[in-house]
Design a protein that fits this description.
It contains 24 helices and 24 strands. It has 755 residues and is of the alpha/beta class.
């Protein structure tokens, strides 16, 4: 540990002590507002300190440790590896204290099957939590922190790896895994069976990439994750069944409890059992807390105001799950429950009316729209239509049938399988319905990176929709909603262009924008058999910018780290032209060849393909498309993975100086020759590289070569997405680093000396 690290911990401890002292002082004086604020600050600081203490120090990145601990959750097999969570009890190296930290581990090509609840001794290589950093993209670091994961890593094939104790017993995760395995052995089609496992025990590992994509495009992924909706449904079914039983049993015997108390106890018991099947995840636990408060108020027969039970539930969740504030589910769930309470007050009493359900669903979708846009940068009529059918189908029919089928498997297996087959038929019908729905022409909207304050105004606008008309405030809805149209990005003028080097890990994807056009150079690589970096980084960023069409997509060459996201981007965004080198036309379905030294002009900005390839080149890398973008005195060069042979050919063609260069081949030692670097003499060089990549990119010699000429170096593993705004005279302002703009205290720090 460094002195600076200890100083930060000391400072946090001082803040906690002062806040607690202030809380006690103002508590005795009964100034509850100030006391509550100080207690909240104290609680947040305490958990913030725990995050910092549990984080893996940067000097231990890539170090091997012998650890002893327990496998938690259900291990998931994907491709050639097993992924699992490991609760550490003992670490040989005391520098990683405190114990009982949670690790996210991968085991490649294991010759054993892991079971939840097993104790193991493993040799693991750890690294800090790290993920891509792009506007609109999935924040993997925040997701890991929300799950309490201190570090990630993989199991090393060493002799100490051994099972110390079998799982077995009555451990919750062990029971869940055995149930998931039993469900996997049922004679049902793969697609509906994978959904049944997800709805029964929260095991979504078998859901195909196509199914995930279908639910994502229709805005119904929340239905596949056991959450508040499912827990509330089970609680409601329990309430109804208990009430029905009480009504009939009370005629022949004295139950000893009033109907409402009996129904409440049964309802909460069933909700707890379902939450246990899901593994007591953060969303299910949050739902249980909210239900507990609700039933507590009902059983005490207290009059429920709009805010009182919601505030108590919010307080309990913050006390028990302080890290949940970092998740979208926390905000969406409380906002949705508050909106439901409010809509319930406006609804006339009486029996269920389909028209009321339609109005409720529309009002709830509209009310959640600003929050959905804020967290997911996406709004669609398709989502409203899909949920209108999918929510009642799953809640009223599928989930009850799945749970009944699981129960019957232990009582009468044949009946259980029959019930699950019926739920499978309903799920298959839902998949077919959603697939047909996506074929319709529907309205979709990705707001172009609207600033945060505009979402707050949009939430206020939605709230005003439900204000009684007599107040005279409803007219503010339209102007407040218009705030979402406020552009967060500067509007490009004639002759200006913006360059975004997207953080896709070990790969390349660069977006070039002019006032009216957009070009994407490469798509990044593949993360697994189901996911590409285009899915989690490139496409979300394009949508964040409000781009629904690319005028040109250039695939420099078909290497996986450059072209793996092509199909995903084609499915998600309209593309006018795809360009690649002639050598790769058999591998890339492209309508244009980049070897022909094409040149065109967009809004005063000149784009030109440079012919670096030759038939004598043996390596595919040297056939990469090379693109030069220029305006006045400014130019940038994108060179794919060309190596020194192709660089020399470009020099022979009279290559000129450039303002910015995206380093060829990620800064490998086979590229960026001394002559190439000296001729280009870039003011800025960008390395698109993965965090702690196994190739050692960018190579030290290459970094020194650019540094000797005074080039300012940027790298995506350290800086996240990098955005440059150019005019004909040069760079406007400083480059924008997305990671530097989001330097939360819990994010891992990048130490160049150790990388």
């Amino acid at each position: 540990m460094t002195l600076a690290y200890h100083s930060r911990i000391l400072a946090n401890s001082t803040v906690i002590f002062c806040c607690f002292a202030g809380f006690v002082f103002f508590g005795f004086r009964r100034n509850w507002i100030i006391a509550g604020f100080l207690f909240g600050l104290c609680w947040a600081s305490f958990h913030g300190q725990r995050l910092v203490e549990n984080a893996l120090p940067s000097n231990l990145n890539g170090v091997d440790f012998d650890v002893i601990g327990t496998i938690t959750g259900i291990p998931k097999r994907t491709d050639n590896k097993l992924r699992f969570y490991f609760a550490v009890e003992k670490i040989n190296d005391k520098r990683l204290a405190p114990a009982n930290r949670l690790l996210s581990l991968a085991w490649y090509d294991p010759d054993v099957e892991l079971q939840a609840g097993e104790r193991w001794q493993l040799t693991v290589r750890l690294k800090q939590n790290r993920g891509f950093m792009n506007p609109g993209g999935f924040d993997y670091e925040k997701w890991l922190i929300g799950k309490g994961v201190s570090a990630t890593g993989y199991v090393r094939e060493r002799e100490p790896n051994r099972r110390l104790q079998p799982g077995g017993g009555l451990s919750l995760d062990g029971l869940r895994q055995r149930l998931s395995t039993r469900l996997a052995g049922l004679d049902l089609p793969d697609q509906p069976l994978s959904l049944i496992r997800a709805l029964a025990v929260g095991d979504g590992s078998a859901i195909s990439a196509a199914s995930w994509d279908l639910f994502r495009r229709t805005g119904t992924t929340h239905l596949l994750v056991i959450s508040g909706l499912h827990i509330t449904l089970v609680a409601g079914v329990g309430w109804w069944l208990a009430g029905f039983f009480w009504s009939h049993a009370a005629r022949v015997t004295d139950i000893g409890l009033c109907r409402e108390t009996f129904a409440g106890l049964v309802s909460m018991s069933m909700a707890c059992l379902y939450a246990a099947l899901a593994g007591f995840t953060v969303p299910t636990t949050r739902a249980l807390i909210m239900l507990l408060v609700y039933f507590g108020y009902r059983l005490m027969r207290r009059h429920m105001t709009f805010m009182e039970p919601l505030s108590i539930a919010l307080l309990l969740v913050l006390l028990l799950q302080p890290l949940s504030v970092m998740t979208a589910g926390f905000w969406l769930s409380f906002f949705a429950v508050g909106l439901i309470f409010y809509l319930q007050r406006l609804s006339p009493p009486g029996r269920f009316n389909p028209l009321h359900w339609f109005i409720w669903h529309g009002a709830l979708s509209l009310g959640l729209a600003p929050m959905t846009l804020l967290f997911f940068s996406f709004a669609s009529v398709l989502s409203v239509a899909a949920n209108f059918i999918a929510v009642p189908l799953l809640t009223v029919l599928v989930v009850p049938l799945v749970l009944l089928g699981v129960l019957m498997l232990f009582i009468h297996p044949a009946v259980g399988q029959g019930v699950l087959q019926l739920s499978g038929l309903l799920l298959q019908w839902l998949l077919d319905f959603l697939d047909r729905l996506t074929a319709l022409v529907v309205w979709q909207w990705w707001p172009a990176g609207a600033p945060g304050w505009s979402y707050a105004l949009a939430v206020m606008a939605v709230a005003l929709l439900f204000v009684p008309r007599g107040t005279g405030l409803n007219w503010l809805t339209l102007p407040l909603s218009a705030a979402l149209l406020w552009p967060a990005q500067p509007v490009l003028r004639e002759g200006e262009f913006a360059l975004s080097v997207i953080d896709v890990g070990q790969g390349l994807s660069v977006l070039v924008e002019t006032r009216e056009h957009a070009l994407l150079f490469d798509t990044g690589g593949r993360l697994s058999s189901r996911t590409s970096s285009a899915d989690v980084a490139v496409i979300p960023y394009l949508r964040h910018l409000g781009l629904s069409k690319l005028d040109r997509l250039v695939i420099s060459h078909p290497d996986t780290d450059h072209a793996a996201g092509l199909a995903d981007i084609r499915d998600a965004i309209s593309i006018d032209t795809v360009s690649t080198a002639k050598r790769f036309q058999g591998q890339i379905d492209a309508g244009e060849i980049c070897d022909q030294q094409l040149q065109w002009r967009w809004n005063g900005v000149i784009f030109a393909f440079l012919n670096a390839s030759a038939n004598t080149f043996k390596k595919d890398n040297d056939h990469s498309c090379v693109l030069r973008v220029s305006s006045g005195q400014t130019s940038i060069l994108l060179a794919g993975d060309i190596e020194q042979t192709a660089e020399q050919r470009l020099l022979e063609q009279g290559l000129q100086r450039t303002t910015l260069l995206v380093a060829p081949h990620h800064g490998s030692r086979t590229s960026s020759s001394a002559a190439f670097v000296e001729t280009l003499a870039p003011a800025y060089v960008v390395y698109s590289v993965g965090y702690r990549n196994p190739y050692g990119f960018p190579h030290e010699d290459v970094r020194q070569r650019y540094a000797a000429l005074g080039a300012q170096a940027y790298r995506t593993d350290r800086d996240g997405l990098l955005k440059f705004h150019f005019t004909a005279l040069g760079l406007v302002g400083a480059p924008q680093s997305y990671r530097n703009a989001h330097r939360e205290f819990w994010r891992s720090k990048f130490d160049l000396r150790l990388e």
